[in-house]
Amino acid sequence: MIQALLLVPSDLKEDFFMDRSDMIHVMYDKKGPKVADNFIKRGFDACYCPTKEDALAKAISLIPKDHVVSWGGSVSINEIGLRPYILEHYTCIDRDTAKTPQERQDLMRHALLCDTFIMGTNAAVQDGQLFNIDGNGNRVAALIFGPKQVLVIVGMNKVEPTLEAAITRARTVAAPINIQRFGLKTPCSFTGMCDDCNTSDTVCNQLVHTRHCSPPNRIKVILVGENLGF
Ligand code: SF4
Predict the structure, then answer these.
(1) 202 CB under 6 A from ligand 1?
(2) Which of 79, 115, 144, 226 is 20 to 30 Å from 23 at the Cα level?
(3) Contact by Cβ (8 Å): 20, 50
(4) Which residues of 6-32 are buried (b: 16+ CB within 10 A; e: fewer)?
(5) What residue owns the CA closest to ligand 1's atom 5?
(6) Is the CB of 175 under 6 A from ligand 1?
């Protein structure tokens, strides 16, 4: 009814009334498919999903029902609802079910041989590359080798113009935010800023740049036209 009262040129009505009309989403919808094409050129399977709901449906469609699934620590996989869905519908290897530190380690090692591993990324490059920082290394280990396939959920807020910008993002934004939940004694825990530390508590142990996917299509990148994670 409100739409009928507004004087909008007919050739602009579709754009004017679409849900994703704010400038960030307009930009994401233009950029996302091009970034997906760039991942495909580097051997990844990749697609762009405008919404969290689209991304969830796409991710589910890529995981066969008989797959054993595990995951790395990620806010993004929760924000699109994927981890809760997986817990309900698949056989899972869930380290959070461990009753002892040793059992947790065993589950993390076991997860390296699951069928589908799901994760977010600390940063991506618009030319189709991933950059990740890991403390234990289990998440990047699974990304590199082991699981039959890896699904990477990437909010468009993580896409940077260059590899250098992606590294800067991972080191100065993602890592200092991520560490706040652990209560560790690192410079960034106290200041919120990376000091390139070598403390025993550092979570910046493994810095992994994934520039090409081999075997082809093993890593499936789902770009999401929303701000996900940090
Ligand atoms: S290198 Fe040290 S200070 Fe920098 S983000 Fe990592 S843990 Fe924090």
Answers:
(1) yes
(2) 79
(3) yes
(4) eeeeeeeeeeeeeeeeeeebeebeebb
(5) 194
(6) yes
Tell me the per-residue pLDDT of 210-230, one tens digit each, with 9 for 90 and over: 999 999 999 999 999 999 999
Q: Is the CB of 63 under 6 A from ligand 1?
A: no
What six digits make up the tokens of 132?
């990740």
Q: How many residues are recorded in the chain?
A: 230
Distance 151 CA to ligand 1 centre (A): 27
Quick one: pLDDT band at residue 168, thresholds 50, 70, 90? Answer: very high
**Rounded distance from Cα 203 to ligand 1 centre (Å):** 7
CATH architecture of 30-161+211-224: 3-Layer(aba) Sandwich (3.40)
pLDDT single digits (tens) 47-80: 999 999 999 999 999 999 999 999 999 999 999 9
User: What residue ranges do the domains of the chain occupy?
Assistant: 30-161+211-224
Q: What residue type is assigned to position 175 of the chain?
A: A
pTM, two decimal places: 0.90
Residue 188 near ligand 1, beta carbon < 6 Å: yes
DSSP string for 3-66: HHHS---GGGHHHHH-TT-SHHHHHHHHHHHHHHHHHHHTT-EEEEESSHHHHHHHHHHTS-TT
Q: What is the DSSP letter of 174?
A: I
pLDDT on residue 183: 83
What's the number of CA atoms in the CB half-sphere (13 Å) around residue 114? Answer: 32
Residue 222: half-sphere exposure toward Cβ, Cα within 13 Å: 29
**Residue 3 pLDDT exceeds 50:** no
